[in-house]
Write a structure and sequence with these properties.
about 35% helix, 7 helices, 7-stranded mixed sheet, alpha/beta, Spore Coat Polysaccharide Biosynthesis Protein SpsA, Chain A
Length: about 230
């Protein structure tokens, strides 16, 4: 099942405290962004990559795309104030009735087999997301006081990519813009439009690199995969 993918890369990663876009930080000598893009570059089912970027990163991003011969990056669009705005800007350049994926640029460890299981599900249902079952005991608290222990078996930690039929996601984004609704992920926009979203089990290695501590986990994952 072929697909296109939108990768929002316009954030400045303030929690990383690196003084620059965290996607330019290196793992094994290669920028995080490049690790992520190479997964989709190598996937024969991926027909194109659209990057949503911050203007100050454009020159460096273009140099990386050229240096690493990332031929599937066929669009760079300007990001917005929020992630949702960046994705909508990219989505406006997409046409057709096929599948569109949205994937965090800071998740470099997504694997092709998981992408394909996700797209197979989305092709059947119209909307599918990646996630892993919650492992920790979950509590609901208010003002620092526990109110209840939440049943863990029904809880999932949601990841990306998330996959949708193109018209469905466009419609959900248009409705969100009209209603001035800001969601926590793409699926939340589709959910409120009334379309069911299926969940596909992913991999605990598919971490999002957000804080300095995450870099230690990322190096460990790379080491494990290279052994």
């Amino acid at each position: 099942m072929t697909y296109q993918v939108i990768i929002p890369a316009a954030g400045q990663g303030k929690r990383m405290g690196a003084g620059k876009n965290k996607l330019l930080l290196e793992l094994n000598g290669i920028p995080v962004l490049v690790h992520t893009l190479k997964v989709f570059e190598a996937d024969e089912a991926c027909t194109g990559i659209i990057l949503a970027i911050h203007p100050q990163d454009e020159v460096e991003f273009r140099e990386l795309i050229k240096k690493y011969k990332l031929t599937k990056v066929n669009g760079l669009v300007l990001g917005g104030i929020e992630r949702q705005h960046s994705i909508f800007n990219a989505l406006k350049t997409v046409t057709g009735n096929g599948l569109i994926l949205v994937h965090d640029a800071a998740r470099p460890f997504i694997q092709k087999e998981h992408i394909h299981r996700l797209t197979e599900s989305a092709a059947k249902t119209g909307a599918a997301i990646m996630g892993v079952p919650a492992k920790d005991t979950m509590k609901r608290a208010k003002n620092g006081v526990v109110e209840a222990t939440v049943e863990r078996s029904s809880l999932w930690a949601v990841q990306t990519p998330q996959a949708f039929r193109i018209p469905l996601l466009i419609k959900a984004y248009e409705k969100a813009e009209k209603d001035c609704f800001l969601g926590t992920d793409d699926a939340s926009l589709v959910e409120r439009s009334g379309h069911p979203v299926t969940i596909v089990e992913g991999d605990y290695d598919n971490i999002k690199i957000t804080t300095p501590e995450d870099l230690y986990f990322a190096e460990a994952i790379l080491k494990k995969r290279n052994n």
